[in-house]
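Hi R.,

Here's the chain you asked about this morning:
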Amino acid sequence: MKLSGTALALCFVLVSGCASAPPSLRITQSPDQTLSPPPPDKAQIVFLQPYKPLGGYADTPLYDITADKAELLNVLSSKGKVAVLVTPGRHTFMISGMGVAALQANVEAGKRYYILSRFRAYIGYQLRPIRKGDPSEFSTSNPEFAQWLQDTTFETMSASGQALYSNPATVGKWKADALDKWSRLSTDEAKQLTLNTEDAVLN
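And the predicted structure, written out as tokens:
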């Protein structure tokens, strides 16, 4: 089958995009790359996304879907990170990107936690808690953890990102899907995807 010149050009653009994608218009680099200590009345959670496939074309918005909430926290891009402050106690977070996934958390005030956003082929994105001293790859003892911190840049949403990912009907559907998937996890899977108070990296 012969491809037209237009089709060939499109293929070239897509393949080239796998190596280098234009920056998202929904995300801007934060002018301040300093990570302040968590305040005494809030827990600080840093979400890291050190790698995205296909040149990082797809955004991955983050939400707090605790109880009846569906709050857009921020949007991650390739090699991006965001720090959010939350009330101490139990939370449910959701990420959307080629499907949705949830993570449960129980956090304490005045402490810092890390969560990794990772892509899984044919499945989509997943949020994994990074544990302190754990022997797994999702741990502060993993040498790659320091590289993730070094390679990622703090980002913030633009007004267009806020508008695009705040549609109540869409977010509500994503939330229902994420909670349904969570309800069908095994006990061991749920434990793996739960951030615990003792996972704090900074006390």
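Residues 28 and 145 are 24 Å apart (CA to CA).

Let me know if you need anything else.
M.
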